[in-house]
Every structure is written in C-alpha cells, then in structure tokens.
Write a structure and sequence with these properties.
Elements lengths: L9 E7 L9 H9 L9 E5 L6 H6 L1 E10 L7 E6 L15 H12 L4 E8 L11 H19 L4
Parallel strand pairs: 1-2, 1-3, 3-5
Antiparallel strand pairs: 4-5
Length: 157
C-alpha cells in the first residue's frame, strides 16, 4: 500500500523508452492514453526517451512517482509492479541515463526528498527495430492503465 501523500506535493507519471524499438515504446503510448484518463487527473505526465539526472528535480516535487517502462525480464504481456528504494549502487550519477533507484537517491541527495516510487511495466516481446507495439503489449494496456490508476488512487497493488 502506498504511504500517505504529502498534500503539498503531487503525482508524477513518467513513461519512458524508445518509440522506434517496438515494445520499448510502451511508456510513450501509456502516457498518450493516460492524458485523457480522469482517474489520473491532476497528475503531471511526462514522456521521455530515458531516465536522466534532470528528472531528480521533478521527483523532488512529487509525493508519488509512477514510472512506466517495458519489462524485458517478464513474460510478454505480463504486467509487473515494483516499488523502488534509493540506491547509489545502480550506476554512476554522472551518466546521461540512470536507473530508477539511482534517480531516487539523486533526488534525496540534491533536494532532500524521496517520493514513493513505483515502476509499472509490461513484459516485452520485441525490443528490435519497429514503431509498433506487439499484440501482447497492446492486449495488456488496459491492465497497465488500471494498475497505474490504482497506484495513483492509493490502493494496494
């Protein structure tokens, strides 16, 4: 279950990946669909190619962050959820691309705030060249959107 949100901070939803790498475009497509979803009204929605250190400032302004990405380690079409904790073991802080735990740690280090962070993914079938999502990803999209909405509503995931 999510922690009680700080009323002075909002919700940030970031979909990320490469739209020219088939299922890796999941994050972008999810953000497009969430734009008109009243269940996440008031949340700040961002689509990004990758997670970068600059997002630490956005994390610092949020009570809750939901990251959406293709999950290469899960069976195709399976929705996955994991809560992220801060870590500096994930990668160098001077990189142009960092992983979620390192980004959480950077938010804490620079801004003194650690939001509640979840990564919601769907098992990818293909991360090769292509601008279309697989049928497995498309079929899982309603469940993915429902899962994000449940997290934002503060329900147990």
């Amino acid at each position: 279950m999510t922690e009680q949100a700080d009323p002075g901070r909002g919700t940030l939803i970031v979909g990320y990946g490469n739209r020219l790498r088939a299922d890796d475009g999941l994050g972008w497509r999810a953000i497009e669909l969430l734009t008109d979803d009243r269940r996440v009204a008031g949340a700040r929605l961002l689509a990004r190619h990758q997670l970068t250190p600059e997002l630490a400032a956005d994390f610092a302004e949020a009570a809750l962050v939901v990251l959406i990405d293709a999950d290469a380690g899960a069976p195709p079409g399976q929705v996955t959820v994991r809560q992220v904790v801060a870590s500096t073991a994930g990668g160098p802080l001077l990189s142009h691309h960092i992983d979620p735990p390192t980004l959480v740690a950077l938010s804490h280090e620079l801004y003194g705030h650690v939001p509640t962070v979840y990564v919601v993914g769907v098992g990818a079938l293909s991360l090769g060249e292509g601008d279309r999502l697989s049928l497995e990803i498309e079929a899982a999209m309603p469940q993915l959107l429902d899962t994000v909405a449940e997290i934002v509503a503060g329900r147990t995931v």
